[in-house]
Design goal:
The structure is a homodimer.
Chain A (H helix, E strand, L loop, with lengths): L8 E6 L11 E6 L5 E6 L7 H9 L7 E5 L8 H19 L6 E5 L9 H14 L4 H10 L8 E6 L4 E7 L12 E6 L5 H13 L16 E6 L9 H21 L7 E9 L2 H13 L1 H8 L5 H9 L11 E4 L2 E5 L2 E2 L12 E7 L5 E8 L3 H9 L3
Parallel strand pairs in A: 4-5, 8-9, 10-14
Antiparallel strand pairs in A: 1-2, 2-4, 3-9, 6-7, 7-8, 10-15, 11-12, 11-14, 12-13
Helix pairs in contact in A: 1-2, 2-3, 5-6
C-alpha cells in the first residue's frame, strides 16, 4: 500500500507504448479531495527537463488535482517542442478529469534528449484514467510504471493518529545530493495548509532524499511531490506531518539505496564532531562519491587511507591528527596514525558502516551510498540510459 | 633522456627492498650545481604525508641539493614516527652527499597508513649514492623506481636556447585537480633566481598537472619539484622558463593520462565561452569526474544528455539554451535541444574530444581525463593501493 493508502486518492499504471516491449510506462495519481493542497521540491540542476519547468510553475498555486508520470523518456533537452509536449500531456489529463491543466503536475524519466512519442502518451492518459482505482494493486501499478533501470518498485506507508502518508519513488542511477534526486509522489489525507505542507516536505526531503549520494549525478528531472486530500478530516501540525513524512521518505530512500545500479553494498557514512551540519554533509558526500573509496568497498577492503585522502580533499578545514575513522565498529585510524590493523574490520557483508569523527564540534550527518562495482560500469556503458 | 638531460645533474634508481620482488623502488636525483635553486608545489589535501610536510619545510629556503623518492609506501597517516622516518631518510642522503638535511627533499608513494621498512630505505640510499650517474640509463632507472600501478615510466625533455628542462613523473590513480596530483621531479641547467623559478613552476603546473583529472582523488603525497643547476651558464627569464617547463609538463601529463588505471580512452574536455577560466575549469572537472559520463565514454556512447546533466549540476551559472555540446567534431546539442543524431559522432577510437561551448564569455580550459572501465574497478577493488 502506498499512494492509495491515505484516503482520497486513486492511482493507475498502464502500458502506454512509450517503452517498447509492453512494460508499464505511464502512471496517474489523482487527489479526489476534499482538499487539493500540494507542494514540490525539484532538482537544483541548471539544466531542467520540460516537466520540471512545468511542474514548478503550476505548483506556485500550492494546489494539484493530479500527477501524471512517464518512464521511457526524460523529455529533457528537448527545446520548446518538449515543453509543448509536457503542456499537452497536462491538458489531456485535465480533460479526462474535468480539471484545469494548472492543477496537473508532470514527471518524466528516461533517456535525455529524445522527444516523447506523444500519440502513445495521450492515449495512455485515457487508458490510465479508466483504470484509476483506490486499491493497493492500482498503487503498485503506478509505482511500477515509473521504473527505469530499477529492479523493483519502491513503496512506503506510515500512519499518524487518524491520518497517514503514503508514497512511491523511483531511481537507480544519477542519484545524488540536494533534495529530490529522483521521482517520488507522496500522498496524505491530513488536513494541512499549503505553507505547512511545503515546509514539511522540504524538511523531510532534506534529511532523506538529500542524504542519498550514489554517484554525484543530480538529474535534470528530479522531483518530489506531495498531495494532501484532507479526507481524514484530521488537522495536523507541520511538525507532526514532517515526522511521518520523514518516516515514509526514509523508508523509500533505503529502498533506493538498496536497488541502485550495480550496488553490492549498502554503505552508511556518518561524519561526526563537525563544526556544522553542512561540513558533515560535504565531507560525507566527498567520501561517498570517491571512486577509490567505492572500489575498495566493492572489494570488501577496509582501505581507510583512501577515506583519509577523500576527507582531506573535501575543502572543509579539518585537523588530521584529531580525526578518527572506524569501519563496522573497528577504529582503524586515530591520533594521526593507524589504530588497529585493517584486517580486524570485516567488510565482507552487504551492510557497511563508516564513521568519521572529526572531533571539532557537535554536528553530524549520515550519507547513504553504495560501492562502485563491475555491475555499475556494465549497466552504464553497455546501454544508453 | 629526462632529469639528467640538463647539465649538472646525476640520478640513480635502485631496488632497495621496500617493495617485494626486487623491483626498483628508490630513486635519487642530485644537483651538482653550481647553483642549487629549487621550488616545489604540493598537494592541497588537508591530510598531508610526512614527506610532503618535510619537503614543504625545507623548500622555504628555495634550495635543494637532492631529492630522494621511494615507491612501495606513501608514509602518509603514520604519525610522528612517520615524520621521523622521513627526517632520517633526508639525514642519510645528506650524509652520503656531504650536505645538510635541509637541502634534501623527500617524496614517497604507495599505500597510505603503513610505516616504511627503514633498514631497506637507508641501505638503499647508500646503494643509490654509489650508482649516481649523468647517463640516460640512470635517469630512466630513477623514473622507473617511483612507479606504483603505472605500467611504464614517464620522462620528457625540452630545450631552450643553450639550456634545457628535463623531468619524470609517476601517477596512475588518485589523479586529480590542483597542481601536483602525483610525483614529478624536473631539472634545468638554466640560471634563474628562486622567486622566478617558483613562479615558472606554479604557472606551468597550473595549466598541465592541474588540468588532469582522472578520478577526483587529490593524493596525500602529490609533489612537483624543480631543481636548477645553473650549469648552462645561460640566464633565462621566468617567461622563457615557464614556456619550456610547460612543454615538459604537458608531455608528462599526456603520458600520465595515457597510462592511468584501467583507461581505454584519452578524453579531452574543453569548456569554451565561459565567464572566467575558473568557471571553465570547474565545469570541465565536474564532467570529467562524472561516472555516468565516464562509463558512457567507456562504451563509446555519445550520450550527450549525461554531459548536459553534469554541466548543469556543477554549480556554475549557465544558460542551458545557449550551450553547445560537440563530440569528436559533431555538434549534438544546441539551442536547448538535440542538434544531430548521436549516431553521427564516432567515439570508437581511443582519443575523444568533447567541446562544451557556454556562449557566455571569452574564457576556456581543457581538462584531460579518461573513461571509467572494468579495468579501473578491477585494479582498485582487487588490490590495496
Amino acid at each position: 500500500m502506498s499512494v492509495t493508502g491515505p484516503a482520497g486518492f486513486r492511482a493507475a499504471g498502464v502500458a502506454a507504448g512509450i517503452k517498447s516491449g509492453g512494460a508499464l510506462d505511464l502512471a496517474l495519481v489523482v487527489n479526489d479531495g476534499p482538499a487539493s493542497t500540494a507542494a514540490g521540491v525539484f532538482t537544483t540542476n541548471r539544466v531542467k527537463a520540460a516537466p520540471v519547468l512545468w511542474s514548478q510553475q503550476v505548483l506556485q498555486e500550492r494546489r494539484l488535482r493530479a500527477v501524471v508520470l512517464n518512464s521511457g523518456g526524460a523529455n529533457a533537452c528537448t527545446g520548446p517542442e518538449g515543453f509543448q509536449d509536457t503542456h499537452a500531456t497536462a491538458e489531456k489529463v485535465a480533460d479526462v478529469l474535468g480539471a484545469g491543466a494548472i492543477d496537473v503536475a508532470v514527471c518524466s524519466t528516461g533517456l535525455i534528449g529524445e522527444r516523447l512519442p506523444m500519440d502513445a502518451v495521450l492515449s495512455g492518459v485515457e487508458t490510465a484514467a479508466k483504470a484509476l482505482d483506490g486499491t493497493e494493486q492500482a498503487a503498485s501499478d503506478a509505482a511500477n510504471a515509473v521504473l527505469t533501470t530499477d529492479t523493483r518498485a519502491k513503496q512506503a506507508l506510515a500512519t499518524g493518529d487518524g491520518w497517514s502518508v503514503g508514497g512511491f519513488a523511483k531511481g537507480a542511477g544519477m542519484l545524488a545530493p540536494n533534495m529530490a534526486t529522483m521521482l517520488s509522489v507522496l500522498t496524505t489525507d491530513a488536513v494541512i495548509g499549503g505553507d505547512d505542507l511545503e515546509r514539511a516536505l522540504r524538511e523531510a526531503s532534506r534529511v532523506t532524499f538529500g542524504r542519498l549520494d550514489v554517484d554525484g549525478g543530480t538529474s535534470t528531472n528530479d522531483t518530489v511531490l506531495v498531495l494532501a486530500s484532507g479526507a481524514s478530516g484530521v488537522e495536523v501540525s507541520a511538525e507532526d506531518l514532517t515526522a511521518v513524512l520523514t518516516e515514509v521518505c526514509t523508508d523509500l530512500v533505503r529502498q533506493l539505496q538498496a536497488d541502485s545500479e550495480g550496488a553490492t553494498k549498502a554503505v552508511d557514512i556518518t561524519v561526526r564532531g563537525a563544526l556544522s551540519e553542512d561540513d558533515a554533509v560535504h565531507i560525507g558526500r566527498t567520501i561517498a562519491e570517491d571512486n577509490l573509496v567505492k572500489t575498495a568497498l566493492f572489494g570488501s577492503d577496509p582501505n581507510w587511507g583512501r577515506i583519509a585522502m577523500a576527507l582531506g580533499r573535501s575543502g572543509v578545514d579539518i585537523e588530521a591528527d584529531k580525526v578518527e575513522i572506524a569501519a563496522n565498529g573497528v577504529t582503524l585510524f586515530a591520533a594521526g596514525t593507524r589504530a588497529r590493523d585493517r584486517s580486524e574490520a570485516d567488510l565482507s557483508g552487504r551492510d557497511i558502516e563508516i564513521v568519521v569523527d572529526l572531533h571539532l564540534g557537535e554536528h553530524q550527518a549520515t550519507i547513504l551510498t553504495t560501492d562502485l562495482s563491475h555491475g555499475y560500469v556494465e549497466e552504464n556503458s553497455a546501454y544508453s540510459s
